[in-house]
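Interim report to the steering committee. The following record documents the input for Capsular polysaccharide biosynthesis protein (454 residues).
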Amino acid sequence: MKARSVGSNFIWSLSAGLIYALAQWAVLVAFARLATMEEVGQFALALAITAPVLLMSRMQLRTLQATDARSAFGFEHYLGLMVLNVVAGVAVCCAIATGMADSLHAGWVIALVALAKGFEAVSEVFYGALQKVERLGLIARSTIAKSALSVVLVPLALWLTHSPIAGAAAMAFAWAIVLFVFDARALQREFPGVRPWSTLWRTPWRKEGARLKALFLLCWVLGLTALLAALRPNLPRYLLEVHAGQAELGMYAALAYFAALGGRVVHSLGQAVSPRLGRYHAAGDARRYGRALAGFTAASAGVGLCAIAGAALLGRWALTLFYGAAYAGNLELFVWLMAAAALEYVCLSLAVGLTAARELKGQVVLLVVSVAVVAVGSAVWVPRVGPVGAAWALGLGWVSELACSVWLTLRVWRRLTAPEPAQALRTIPPGPVDAREPTAGWVPGVVVEDRKDF
């Protein structure tokens, strides 16, 4: 199978990510325009409840699947585990809705948003298979289709019914259409022998239960890291709201949003290079693994330096243009936030390399350290300095993670360059590994030892 260009994959991924972000914003605008403020609050509550639960349910299976260069697990294992996780996640969201929602109306909104996110999570398994063979163009088209359907169906449902229940149901319906029609057909075109839905009931799960358990034991760590990563940027905001009020928190959040733009660039580039990093590591090719990771890290650092320079030179003009003169008076905070973002981008690039090398448990440790540093820094600086202190705490957290990530990366490099006879015999596959092709003699357990939405 012919390898795709990293540049082409990056452009596809970045374009789709930006379109998806705009679609999310458009859906929120539709709720604000066509529903009451109380109903907008119900939708916001649904997002706040379902996002962490379904994020944990995903367990970053897509990343693990895309970098599974040795095909330790088949498509059926990733799909089966994701379906089980999604069913459990939606059930948990419904249970939370029963206990927290102040009305049956709000409970239905939470349940339907959870269902929509469940469909989106299952799509991630299809994306992982396509990303593994570097078909990010197909993934991008699916994301664009999902965005377009959401922008059309959700406002239409709200306009016809003025009900957030209908809006949430329309979102779930749109994402289900993309999953069952577009994603399934794209996978079958790329892998003609794969029948995704029949796989679920034809696979002998009693015999495959041990492998499913092995996959779960491998990837639960990634789910925990996703949860910790989602918690870290919000810790300073919690304390900022307590000590400075909602106005200061709103200003801080508005300025911090610019960091997400650079993060989208780094994330898209990471999706393009992660399959190759996985193949190079699996083949023991230290030279190409190191060169690819170094190039990715340098590009991420370059994005961060541009963010800092842009904030310092054009920050006042940009803040005035997008938010107004009141925000432009916080240029110092803006520069500090971009400095923290620059550290974040480098950490993200190293995390992709560590995941490709299956250095998973170490990432949990460094995230725990980083979250603890952010929490302590926020407790010390936010009451004294305010929003700037929140940016300092976040930056210090990224510094601690960067130090741990560099140490883990060096450990991976030492393993790759160790003079092991078995390692010297391995060769790099000529192109992307077919997701259907098993690897003889591969034991799933060895994988562990070998080693920013709605």
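The longest helix spans residues 246-282. The committee is asked to note this result when reviewing the revised timeline.
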